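Researcher: Let's run the pair from yesterday's discussion. Sequence first, then C-alpha cells, for each.
Model: Starting with the first of the pair.
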Amino acid sequence: MKIEGSVVIVTGASSGIGAATARAASAAGARVVLAARREDRVRELAGQLEGAIAVRCDVTDVLQVTALVQAAIEAFGRIDILVNNAGQGLQAEMEAISLDDFRGVLELNLVAPLAMMQAVLPIMRRRGAGAIVNVSSGTTFADVPGTGGYVASKIALERLSAIARNELEGSGITVSTMIPFATRTEFLSSIRAGRADAEAMTAGAAFDEPERVAEAILELVESGEPQLDLVPAAYGGTNRGGEPR
C-alpha cells in the first residue's frame, strides 16, 4: 500500500518508534493520527506535522479505542494503515514475575493490538484495502533469562498477526509484523518492572535509532510482506549489516 495520501493511525506515538513512524509517514505524504496516553506530547508533535491530529488514547480501554477510530473517521473519512506500536517491557525471572505485571503487559502488548485491529477492520473491509503492522521485538529470537513475560506477549502477537493475515487473504488487507532490534527509545525508562536488570543486560549494546525502525515499518506497509526484522544475523535475524532486508 502506498504511504502517500493514506490515513495512518500510529499508537504509542508520543516518543521513540511511534513518533519516528509518524514523522516518516507524514514526510511521505500521509495524514497521521497520533495516539498515546501522553496527550501533551502527541499534540506537540501533531503541531509539527502537516494535517496530523492528536488523540489521547489508552489502547487498553476499548471505549477510548472506539473514540480514537471515530476521531480518525471524522477528521479524514477513512483509515488505511494501522501501526500497532504501543507496548511496554517487563524484566523478571519466571519465579519472580508479578502476575499483576504479567497481566498488565499482556493487556497492552497483546490484547490492545487485537482491540485496535477489531476496531479498524470493518472500515478497511468496506474499502477493500488496508495495511496493519504490529510491532514485536527482537527478544523473541532468543531465550534470555528474565525476558519470559515480555517475550511471551510478543511471540503471541506475532502468531496473532500471522493468523490474522491468513484469515484476511483476498480481502485487500495485509497484516504484517515488524521486529526491531535494540532501539534507542524510552523503552527502558518506562519498563513495567525490572528496569535495573534490563539496563544491566543491555549495557554496551549497539542500539538502532528509532528512525531506522520507522523506515522499515513504512517499507513493510508498502511491500505488504508478512514480516521484516532488523535483528542481526548473529542473533538469528536477516539483517547482515547496512540496510534492512
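Model: Moving on to the second of the pair.
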Amino acid sequence: MNRELDDEALGELEVLIPNLNWRYSGGTAVNRTIAPLIASRWRAAWLGPDRPDGIAALTVRDLLRLRFRPPSHGKVRIWHARRNVEMIAGLFLNLLGYRFALIFNSASQRPKTWLTSFLIARMDALIATSEAAAQYLSRPATVIHHGIDVDLYSPPADRRAAFAETGLTGRYAIGTFGRVRRQKGSDLFVEAMCRLLPRYPDFSAVVIGLTTVDNRPFVEGLKQQVAAAGLTERIRFLGELPVEEVPLWYQRISIYVFASRVEGFGLTMLEAMAAGDAVVAARAGAAEMVITDGDDGVLAPVGDADALAAALEPLMRDPERIEAMGGRAREKVVERFSRDREADQISAVYQKVWARTQAP
C-alpha cells in the first residue's frame, strides 16, 4: 500500500483525502474513520501521515505525476479538505493546473477568521458536521453528522474483567480522552474527580491524551492538584496512547466524561456511547443533538465543575444505572451514527459536485 501508484491507478483516482497535520488530532481520527469507507465506494487515496488500512497511499511524487495524468473516468477529481492548510493546498494545486473540485468539511462552532472565510468562499461545496456548525458558514452547507466504526468501538464481553486489566483500584473507572488542555475541560474533570472520588472508593479515574510542550505547565498544575488531594493512585494521567489501544480503554471504563468548553462535534462522545459507557457531557459541540438527557446520557452546563460533579454523582451512587444507560447509548449510535451512513451521505455530495462540473 505504500508503493507508488501506477499510471493506470493515477488516472482512475476520483477522490483525494489530504491529512496535512503532522500531529495526531481529532480531525485525523475523523479522517481515519471515514477514509476506508470512501475508498470502498470510490477510487480514493490518502495524502499525509497516519493513513489507515483500506485506502491507498498517495506519495508526494504520485501527486506531482498526477498533474500530467488526466482522469480516465471523465469526472473531476475531488480534494476533500478538513483544515485550512488543506484548503490552501487544494487552491495552490489548482493554480498549478490540477483542477480539483474542492470540498471543505467544517466542524467548528465559532466565527471564522478572515482567512478561513476567504478560503471557504472558494470551495466548490461545503459539508458541516452539525446544524450548529453550519450556522457559522457564510454559504449553504450539507449537514452530515459524524459516524464511527461501531464494530471497533463496542462493549466488552466482561467489563469487570476489562477493568481488572488496568491495575486501577476499585471496581469502576471514569475517563476523559483527548488533548489535555483547558478547552477540553481537563481541569473541570480533575476538579470533579477530586471532589467525588474520596466519597466513592469503588471508582478511579484516567486522563488519556496528548500533552503539548506549551501546555505542560497546565498539566503539571493538574497533577499537583491531584497529589494535594492524595489521589495520585486513583487519578492516572496516561498520556497519549497508540491509536489501537484507545478502543480498549473505552471498554475498561464505565463512565465517560466529555467536559469540553469549546468543541466542533465531539467524536469521543460517540465512541464512548458505542462502547456502552454512560456519558456525562457538557452542552458543547454536538452533545445536545447526540444525547437525550437522563436517558442515554447526562448533560451538564459548559465550564461548571460543580454541575459536572452533580451530574456524575447519581451514577456513582447507583452504579446499576450505568449499564442500562450505556446500553441505550449503544443502541442510538448503531442506529443513527454509523460510519456507513456518513460515507453514503458524503458520497451523495460528491455526486452533486460531479453532476455540475466537467473534467479537464
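Researcher: Give me one sentence on the second I can quote.
Model: The mean pLDDT is 94.
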